[in-house]
Design goal:
Two copies of one chain form a homodimer. By secondary structure, chain A is an alpha+beta fold. Helices cover 28% and strands 26% of the residues of chain A. Chain A has two domains: 246 residues, 3-Layer(aba) Sandwich (Aminopeptidase); 109 residues, Alpha-Beta Plaits. The longest helix of chain A has 17 residues. Chains A and B meet through α6, α7, β13, β14 and β15 of A and α6, α7, β13, β14 and β15 of B. Chains A, B: GO terms for molecular function: acetylornithine deacetylase activity; metal ion binding; succinyl-diaminopimelate desuccinylase activity. Chains A, B: Its EC number is 3.5.1.18.
Chain lengths: 384, 384
């Protein structure tokens, strides 16, 4: 079991967050506390202090992960999570407001809409999402379902440091819920589940020789021709899972081989990435890859299962209905798979265009932040 | 025109070479003067002093290249050359004598014969060859043909530093001859001409995308499949040139591509090495390569022409007859091509197994050193 740092006493008031402020203003406050992966203590302190002060949540801290729960005895519980870290800042803080004109939008990534944006690191991935969650956590003391809010660290780095992953190992009970929502950017729509992902090294082995006497050797790069042929000929499937269409993919992402300009190489390595629909288990995906590259030396070096969208569960369906709009499949792997692995259906729902995540001109449309706050509130507000 | 260092006055007697000694002893003296490429001044000084003292040769010095000529007014002139440098010493100096038993020979590289050997850096490549040349230069004051002896530096490093190449640019007249002999190791046989060699980068261009949304990109590694297929399917020819069989070769020696494990790569580069028979010109070889990789981005990055064996010239034929034995084609590129480019037919002829050149257990059979000395002497001795 991984070790977690001891809980840290947090409240020092340096970065007092105003949870009663407008959600755009709160997004700005969160973004302007730098929190690259591994350096989240300041923002975790600020979040912990702010939710602790509310009085209606039971607050727990694990390293730089903050858990805040209602304990109202509702029949159902929803987990709602967002990560506090960002990829490295690249001269894109503090945030500022920008206006995207029709012309700007036409020249930008596909789907960019004109309008008012908050620009800067973390705005899309994913402090706007965290801001909507904090606003609803603060203002709904008695939601329709019990809620476990989770704000965690180290999502942008290797899986072994991921705060949600560590929490699921040391306190899986805190992730148990009937449904989970992850605030990753989805342009304010609902994206269900996610594809699984495998990475593998596919290798060929030859025999070295001087290239002036190539017949004395066996060229490992030439032996790799069928690997690339199979990849080039492969037609990825689109699979329907729980009513959503998952597009798969199988790609070489790296290739390397060679010793020197005059030596017949004895090794060639093709690094492949397989993205598979969540109807396939990890074992099935590994077996497919090994059979696809039959005859070659295949080593699976990284594996993460997919997550079914779980929209057949009534509580998840009700969420999609409450926030409105079409539900789409999520292609990229996200932490929803961690909930899925615990049997909790989970979706992604957050403001911001994923194409702008990690971009130096990262920026989130203000109307999307407001719309996601409204959506979460509509879902959780007690009708009574 | 490249600059050459000014001629250096040499004689200091530190490394007095005894040209009247047995050729094996002289080989040992030469090897025990360390002379890695770029550090040949000590050995060049010793060689210059030794041949200058003979009195029957006109001695010239260019940097660390020594030229010694007879000027007897013969109808024909032969150039005989060897390089003075070695690849880096790797705990394999000073030299020592070793005995290779039947068992040792069976466990070594193919063709190893039992017998007495001189072991150490430079024994094969190519101080034994230089020793045979110095012995004959010293003892034949009036050879049958005028002789231009050339002992040069920096053969084991980039072509731009090669002493013979530099000499051919500043004083091409000194390389002019009716025939040339290079003392590179050939197991004591005659190897004619050499294949040419080209190196090229063959590239594919795609478009980056996140590997979770591969359909938004174009995979440059997959686009390289036909490059490897063509290479794998290519059957290299063996071409007869001036009576010798040259085996060609076309090989990928390096491949690289990829940005990150989750990114569709936009570039893949296959580095290929083409070894072509000397019946083909450089331009023809370039044209072949470009047409072979038709449809791809081909950049020729290095080119060296082959050398015809020129054994149809009477003087060359007479040499082969004098030293006896079968004449074979040389597959690796050697400095004979520099003579060939000046219209001088040239062959390789020297003691030592090329498979042991650059090896840490480099070693030359003593009987091969003696046999090559006898061969050179038989060829040059005046019958009168």
């Amino acid at each position: 079991m991984p070790e977690l740092p001891s809980p840290v006493s947090a409240v020092d008031g340096r970065d007092g967050l105003d949870l009663s402020a407008d959600v755009v203003e709160l997004t700005r406050q969160l973004c302007d506390i730098p929190s690259e992966s591994g350096a989240e203590s300041r923002i975790a302190d600020a979040v912990e202090a702010a939710v602790d002060a509310l009085g209606h949540l039971r607050v727990l801290r694990f390293g730089n992960t903050v858990v805040a729960r209602t304990e109202l005895g509702r029949a159902t519980r929803v987990a709602i999570a967002g990560h506090l870290d960002t990829v490295p800042i690249n001269d894109n803080l503090p945030t500022r407001f920008v206006t995207v004109t029709e012309e700007d939008a036409a020249a930008d990534v596909p789907g960019t809409r004109p309008g008012e944006y908050l620009w800067g690191r973390g705005t899309v991935d994913m402090k706007a999402g965290v801001a909507t969650q904090l606003r609803v956590a603060a203002s709904l003391a008695a939601p329709r379902h019990d809620v476990t809010w989770i704000w965690y660290d180290n999502e942008e780095v290797e899986a072994s440091r991921n705060g949600l992953g560590l929490l699921s190992q040391v306190r899986p009970d805190l992730l148990h819920a009937d449904f989970a929502i992850l605030g990753e950017p989805t342009n304010g729509g609902v994206e269900g589940g996610c594809n699984g992902t495998l990475r593998a090294d596919v290798r060929t082995h030859g025999r070295r020789a001087h290239s002036a006497r190539a017949w004395a050797g066996v060229n490992a790069i030439h032996l790799a021709a069928p690997i690339l042929e199979r990849l080039a000929d492969y037609e990825p499937a689109t699979k329907r899972v729980d009513g959503l269409d998952y597009r798969e993919g199988l790609n070489a992402t790296r290739i390397s081989g060679g010793v020197a300009g005059n030596v017949i190489p004895d090794l060639c390595t093709v690094h492949v990435n397989y993205r598979f629909a969540p109807s396939m288990s990890l074992d099935e995906a590994c077996a497919f890859l090994e059979s696809f590259f039959d005859g070659f030396d295949v080593e699976i070096v990284d594996r993460s299962p997919g997550a079914r969208p779980g929209l057949d569960a009534g509580i998840a369906r009700a969420f999609a209905d409450a926030v409105g709009g079409e539900v789409r499949a999520k292609f990229g792997w996200t932490d929803v798979a961690r909930f899925s692995a615990l049997g909790v259906p989970a979706v992604n729902y957050g403001p911001g265009d994923p194409q702008k995540a990690h971009a130096d001109d990262e920026r989130v449309a203000l109307d999307e932040i407001r719309s996601v706050e409204r959506g979460l509130r509509a879902y959780l507000e007690d009708e009574a």
